[in-house]
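Problem 12. The chain below contains 455 residues. Write out its predicted structure in token notation.
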Amino acid sequence: MIRLTWVQPEDLVGHELRQAFEDGRYDRHRKEVTAITERWRRAGGPGAPPRAGASPEPAPPELRRLAGQVLDELAAIPSPLPEPSSLDEIVAACPSWPSSRPGRGGADPDRVLGAWLGRAAGCVLGKPVEKIPRAGIREIAEATGNWPIRGWFTAIGLPADVAAHWPWNRRSAATSLAENIDGIPEDDDLNFPLLALSLLERCGRGFTTDDVARLWLDELPGGRVFTAERVAYRNLLAGIEPPETATYRNPFREWIGALIRVDVYGWANPGDPVAAAEFAHRDARLSHTANGIYGAMFAAAMCARAMTASCVDEVIEAGLAVVPPESRLARAVRTAVADAREEPDFERVVDRLYERHGDRGHGALHWVHTINNAALIAAAVVHGRGDFTTSIAAAVAGGWDTDSAGATVGSIVGALNGGVPRQWTTRRSRLASSLAGFDGIGLDELARRTVALTG
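Solution.
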């Protein structure tokens, strides 16, 4: 029996209940949410979200039907937070939204290549330790003489007890440890930028969310998408149209998936964070809402500014300007940035992040949520002050979504520097991908095609 995760109603209820706590529905509508929760648990529904990727036994038909009803009832309760999802409302909520746009011109080829190289390097660094907690990442690095992190992770010389306690990500260790790296392995953090490049080449700057959806269905294997993207994909196949694809039985709508998709929109709009953020919104609304959308806009705006900026402060400022300042994401980022500016010891900065956003236990934000990871990304960029190694090492050592955070930070700092240190390039600068026409493509070719979009 094929048991797909992240799509069955009974697997989603726990995540939606957690989302209700996060977006204020529980506080504002406690009696209603509590009644729904108790009805679900009396029927035998699990009281907590299933472990990510777990494949529990399928629910009996009556429990699955109830799960669908519970999801729909919870979705009908509005969040009281001032966190809109439509672009017009987002702009209206941003008093610092840039009032003018710089003239669009061709991008600096070195910065574009640096962005591609940086994204690939940060992603590969984070891949083997994805899902390993922060403490485990440090123990592995210390045991192999790589703390502070200054190079790829390796299994060579790793004591057996440490390896047993903190096993590598099983899908990634074979291609992303120092002794195994031969080119750039496939990853969703790299597939989605390829899709964005294809989208702009096919549909131009006026692309729509429907165009994004069509491209997914045409080119993106369903097994290569996860959480919010998998739910949106399922919804498309069921005939649901955007933006309802982002909201129908989708408790992952504020997770990190949209943030990892949008770097190319920044690179294609050098020095124009407004255009980049608008492009990101069109893409993100297919699968995300509120802070999930803000994370995408934040990242795209930073990537656009990194194409022309002279320092990291300009990049952070551009990202925050397109995010509603009263949103949970903006508040989290501002606090993380302040910590990183005043505290030189990044481990203490991350301690504070975990105090605010939690570890992987009850009540914490999920390790692939947008808010905590966006805060970590911003803190790593500020802490690194433009040093590539320090920046991506900080993002990965933070221990949440290691490959995604590393990729975004690498993209920004690689663009700022117009390249990456040689130690962070692979022997073959070619990318593996299941997307048609991209397997084995060189990063220099991807950079050339990206620059062509900006002329």
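Discussion. The beta strands are 430-431, 441-442. Students who got a different answer should revisit the alignment rule from Section 12.3.
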